[in-house]
Amino acid sequence: MIESATAVLPVDRIEPSIDFFARVGFEKVVEVPEGDHLGFAILMQGGVQLMYQTRTSIFEDSGMLPNPNEGTPVLMFLKTDDLEGCKKALEGYEVVMKERTTFYGAREIGYREPGGHIVTFAEFAEEAEG
């Protein structure tokens, strides 16, 4: 019945988040301008899709987010087969969860991306070996 699900991530500005995700292989495939910046964008890597929309654009489109300056960060969990590559690509970004090994067999590290959302990158042992 449902083929996919993608959260729309509210941000003040989209462009810094595009740079963050470009470093780990995402490409911008859709953009909608809002004045001198983007109001909406879709990023893709393989079959993985991320959507960003500015808080002001969300408010103008739907009236949601009555205070466009406030929003709750989204927590994203991304599986990778190259945690070391992700860490190298994201040097300089804020680490909010130091690298750890979990009880469920993943090595993980968490970053705050420029839009304020928390992104955990996780590599599972069996995928790293393969």
TrEMBL record:
This is VOC family protein. SUPFAM superfamilies: Glyoxalase/Bleomycin resistance protein/Dihydroxybiphenyl dioxygenase (SSF54593). Residues 7-119 form the Glyoxalase/fosfomycin resistance/dioxygenase domain. Gene3D superfamilies: 2,3-Dihydroxybiphenyl 1,2-Dioxygenase, domain 1. Pfam families: Glyoxalase. It comes from the Bacteria. InterPro entries: Glyas_Bleomycin-R_OHBP_Dase, Glyas_Fos-R_dOase_dom.
